[in-house]
Amino acid sequence: MNKINNRIETLDFLRGFALLGIILVNIIAIAQLPAPELSNDITYKKFLDFFIESKFFAIFSYLFGIGFYIFMQRAEHKVENKYVIFLRRIIVLGIFGFFHMQLQSGEALLIYAIFGLLLIPFFKVNKYINLVIGVIILVFVIWLDAKFLIPFPYFILGLASAQFEIIFKFKTTKKIWSIVAIASGIVSLLGWYVLNKFYVVPHIDLSPQQLQKNPEDYIVAVDQYHHLITIFSPFMSLFYISCLILLLNMTCGRFILTPLKYYGRMALTNYIAQTLIICLLILIFDGEQWSLLNTLWICLMIYIVQIISSLVWLKYFKLGPLEYIWKLATYMKWINMTK
Q1: Nearest-CA neighbor of 143 among 228, 259, 65?
Q2: DSSP assignment, residue 36?
Q3: How many CA atoms lie less than 13 Å away from 12 in the CB half-sphere?
Q4: What is the domain extent for residue 90?
Q5: Whole-angstrom distance, CA of residue 228 vs CA of residue 197
Q6: What would the DSSP string read from start to end of 139-165?
């Protein structure tokens, strides 16, 4: 095991990228918007289904597994027992998740905390075994269409990836990432074709005539369509990750994407702040009247505000505000926050 002394910036870029997609789906749930009926809203919903739904959550979950490995590897060099330190970290994450759940019922932090505890025994398991276990559980969960359980296999796969030291090879295995991007891209194209073929409009009154005659057929078609979204999501997520890593290996690409690095460094703060901002906007501007397409423009506005805020904050401080509280509670000692 290599000792991880320096921050791995590529992971910050990936976290920031994942946050961009997660809010696009979460805002609809927070605002409790009904199924779209206008053509523009239906088109946007189709875009979310094909390119966003489940993909960015998968990336975020995968990164949690990598983060677990990095945390435990660094904690091995602490005086205190690494498992005790991680337990405190998970408890604090669960507390954040509990309070966040009061605003967003579908929030992920509490689930992450629960599955994070289950991840502890896998830290000492052989990397090949973890890889096999992660793939098997992921296939099984997708087959069952048990979305609640999906983060756990991604945790294990993230851990296994870190054990294979992929986190040290983002800049040295460009050919491999190119192959991964091409392979996952081909499957993703197939996925988009299949999803388009089995596409079901989000409202029964707009469905084809033959399905209007039998609502049960419509329900079956909707379930099948959403299951297909889950099935192809891992491949699309891998395609996004590999393409982003290839871009980051280009000087111009890394420069253009620099704001994502700061956005991702404050992932916890920005994730919860997204919900707070959305709830505030719903109260001020009557969120019940929003169209689905309105949520896209709101998210773009939130991106700008949060990215600028992250850039300014990290110019003076080492950690985001919630990241700092999390770290203080984890290590139970004073930590200098200012640069």
Answers
A1: 228
A2: P
A3: 19
A4: 9-331
A5: 11
A6: HHHHHHT-GGGTHHHHHHHHHHHHHTT
Token pair 């004073």 is found at: 334
Chain centroid offset of residue 185 CA:
19
Answering whether pTM is above 0.85, one says: yes
**Degrees to nearest 5, angle at CA 330 with 308 and 72:** 95
* Domains contained in the chain, number: 1
Task: Count the neighbouring beta carbons within 10 Å of the beta carbon of residue 265.
Answer: 24
Q: Look-up: residue for tokens 């960015």? A: 56
Distance CA 302, CA 248 (A): 24
Instruction: Give the separation between CA 279 and CA 281, rounded to whole angstroms.
Output: 5
Please answer whether residues 36 and 203 qualify as being in contact, where contact means their C-beta atoms are separated by less than 8 angstroms. yes
Residue 233 belongs to some domain of the structure: yes
> Tokens 């979950």 identify what position?
61
Q: What is the DSSP string of 48-71?
A: HHHHTTTHHHHHHHHHHHHHHHHH
Q: Is residue 4 part of a domain?
A: no
Point out the residues of the chain with pLDDT beneath 70. 1-6, 79, 206-213
Please state, in angstroms and rounded to a whole number, the distance separating the CA atoms of residues 283 and 170.
43
Residue 46 in any domain: the answer is yes
Residue 112 host element (H or E): helix 109-119
Indicate the burial class of 316 (C-beta count within 10 angstroms; 0-12, 13-18, 19 or more). Answer: exposed
Write the burial class of residue 204 (CB in 10 Å: 0-12 exposed, 13-18 middle, 19+ buried): middle
How far apart, in whole angstroms, are the C-alpha atoms of residue 72 and residue 117?
A: 13
Position 338 in a domain: no
pLDDT at 183: 97
pLDDT tens by residue, 177-230: 999 999 999 999 999 999 999 998 887 776 665 555 577 888 888 999 999 999
Instruction: Name the packing angle between helices 174-197 and 39-51 (round to 10°).
Output: 140
Name residue 1's amino acid.
M
